[in-house]
Amino acid sequence: MTFPKDFLWGGATAANQCEGAYLEDGKGLSVPDMLLGGDVDTPRTFLPKTDPNAFYPSHEAIDFYHHYKEDIAMFAEMGWGVFRLSINWGRIFPNGDDAEPNEAGLAFYDKVFDECHKHGIEPLVTLCHYEIPWNIVTQYHGFYSRQTIDLFTKYARTCFERYKDKVKYWLTFNEINIPLMGGGHSGLGNLYGLGLMQDEDINSETPIPLSDLKDNPQMRFEALHNQFVASALAVQAGHEINPDFKIGNMIAHITTYPLTPNPKDILENQRNMHISNDLCGDVQVRGAYPDFAFRYFKENQIDVSYITEADKEILKEGTVDFYTFSYYMTNCITVDESAEKIGGNMSMGAKNPYLKASDWGWQIDPDGLRYTLNLLHDRYPDTPLMVVENGFGAFDQVEADGSIHDDYRIAYFKEHIKAMDEAVEDGVPLIGYTTWGPIDLVSAGTGQYAKRYGFIYVDRHDDGTGDFSRSRKDSFYWYQKVCQSNGADLG
Ligand code: P53
Predict the structure, then answer these.
(1) What are the counts of helices (DSSP H) followed by strands (DSSP E) for the chain?
(2) Environment class of residue 371 by beta-carbon count within 10 Å: exposed (0-12), middle (13-18) or buried (19+)?
(3) Residue with CA closest to ligand 1 atom 22
(4) Where do transmembrane segments lie in this chain (predicted)?
(5) pTM over 0.90
C-alpha cells in the first residue's frame, strides 16, 4: 500500500453551497445570495437586490444548517478522517464591518465541529470560500479597499480564537487564483473571489450574466494583492494564536498542455501556467511575487506601486504550511485562434483530442493529476500537498427503488486515486484528499442542483421542488471501502 498511514481521506464542501438558512440566526447577505441559477450554456446571473419572485439557489441550498448531524454521521459511516467545510463570514460578521461578532453564528460552527470530533473527523476549515459579506462589496468594493484587509484579519482572528482547540487545519481563501483565469471567469473572479464590482453593475436593475460583469484590471490586481496581504496576516495571526495550526493556501489548479509542439504553443502554455496557477502559489508558498509577474503587469499596464516594502515584508512572513488545490480537468493552450474550444460558457482553453469531457465540458484527465502533483512538488519541494477538491459533476438517474447507479462517478474517482497513488510512489508528499461535493450541493459555476457531485443524493431540484431527504448512491459504498482500506481497495 502506497498511501501513508495517517493519510487524510474525506470530502469538501462550502457553506454557501450547502447551508441554506441564508438569513437565519442573524446571518447577513453574502455574495452568492445575490446569484440566480444558470446551466452549461446559460451563465449564472447576478441581481444586486433580492427579488421575491426569483429563485436563489444558495438561500436554501441543501439545508445543511438543519441537517448537519445527519450529514456528518453519513460522512463518518464512510470512514472519513477529515471534512473540509467553510465558515460563512456573514454568519460571524453579518455586515463584514460589525464591531462585535454574532454569537449565534459562532455557536453554529461550535456545534458542527463538536459533531465532527464526536465521529473522529478532523475539520479542515476554509475561512473564505466565495462568501464575502454583501455589505463589503457595496461599501468597500471588496478587497480593493485596504480596509477589507483589516475586516478579514479581524474575522480570521475571531475564528482562530474561538475554535483554537477544535480546528487544527485551516485554509485562507478558496481558489485565490480565480481572478487570473480569464475567459468567463473574470466576473466570477472579481465578484466571488474579490467581492469587487464596478459601480454601474452594483446599481443594475436587471440581472447581469456573471461573464458580463465589468472588469477593471488595475482594480482587480490591487484587490488580489490586498487579498495576498490579508492571507499572509491571517497565517501570522493563526500561528501566534496556536502554534500547532497548519494553515494552507488553495489554488484552482487548472493544468494546461501545449496543444501542439509548435514552440509558440509551448511558450504560450508556459505563460498561462505561470500566470493562472503559479503566480498565486509562489506568493503564498515562497512569500514573494515571481519575476514573470512583473512583465505581465507591465504588459497589462498595471501600476504596481501598491506593492509596498511593508507589504513585501508581510508576504515574506506569512507563508503557508501546506499547499492545497482543486483538480477537475486539464485544458490545452494554443496561439491558433481557430482551435476548437471546450468548457461551455466558462471556456478556458482548447479541446484535447485525447480526452473525454463531462456534460459540462470539463475534460477528464487522471494522468494530469499525477503530472500536476509532480509539477507542484518540483516547484515547492519542501511543502506538503493536499488535493482538497476533485470530483465529477453529472446528471444522476434515480431508479424506481430509489437506488442510484453512478458507475461513471466511481470510474472517475478510481482513476484519480490511482493517479495519486502513482504520485506518492514518485515521492510526492501528499497528505490528504477531500473529494468535492461528497453530498450533492449547489454548483458554484452554474448554480444548478442538477450538476451533482455527491456520494449522497439530496432530493432537491432546480425548479425548487424536493424534500431535502438524503440517500446513498452506489459511489457511497465504494468510497467507504476506499477510506476504510486507506486507498488499497479500489474495487
Ligand atoms: P462547479 C471553475 C473551475 C474550477 C473550479 O465547480 C471551480 C470553478 C468555479 O466554478 O470552482 C471550484 O460547482 C470551487 C467550488 C465549486 C467546484 O469547483 O461550478 O471551489 O466551490 O463548486 C466545482 O461545478
Answers:
(1) 18, 16
(2) middle
(3) 444
(4) none
(5) yes
- Those residues whose C-beta lies under 8 Å from the C-beta of residue 370, and which sit 6 or more positions away, are 419, 420, 422, 423, 426
CB-based contacts of 199, cutoff 8 Å, min separation 6:
none
State how far the Cα of 280 lies from the Cα of 179, in Å rounded to an integer: 10
Which residues lie below 8 Å from residue 158, measured CB to CB, with a gap of 6+?
92, 93, 101, 106
C-alpha 245: how far from its chain's center?
20
User: What are the residue ranges in the chain where pLDDT is below 50?
Assistant: none
Query: Nine-digit cell at 302?
Result: 498595471
Q: Give the Å distance between the CA of 1 and the centre of ligand 1.
A: 31
Strand pairing report for 385-389 and 430-436: parallel
Q: What does the DSSP assignment read for 140-209?
A: H-GGGSTHHHHHHHHHHHHHHHHTTTT--EEEEETTTTGGGS-TTHHHIIIIIIH----HHHHT-SS-EE
Q: What are the structural domains, with CATH classification, of the chain? A: 8-484 (3.20.20.80)
Beta 246-252 vs 255-258: how paired, if at all? unpaired
Q: Which of 115, 122, 175, 422 is catalytic?
A: 175
Kindly give the pairing relationship between strand 456-458 and strand 470-472.
antiparallel
Task: Give me the phi and psi of 30, to 5 degrees please.
Answer: -130, 175
Ligand 1 pocket list (CB less than 6 A):
14, 17, 174-175, 252, 326, 328, 389, 393, 436, 443-446, 451
d(CA 463, CA 304): 46
Report CA Rg, the chain: 21
Judge whether 175 counts as a catalytic residue: yes
Sign of CA dihedral 157, 158, 162, 163: negative
Contact 3/424 with Cβ under 8 angstroms?
yes
Q: Pairing relation of β-strands 255-258 and 208-209?
A: unpaired
Q: Is 389 a catalytic residue?
A: yes
Contact indicator for 433, 83 with CB cutoff of 8 Å: no
**81, 122 Cβ separation under 8 angstroms:** yes
Q: Tens digit of pLDDT for each residue in 216-244? A: 999 999 999 999 999 999 999 999 999 99
At 345 the pLDDT is 54
- Cβ atoms of 476 and 456 closer than 8 Å: yes
Under 8 Å between Cβ of 275 and 296: yes
Residue whose Cα lies nearest atom 14 of ligand 1: it is 444
Give the Å distance between the CA of 59 and the centre of ligand 1.
Answer: 18
Q: What is the pLDDT of residues 269-303, one digit of tens each?
A: 999 999 999 999 999 999 999 999 999 999 999 99
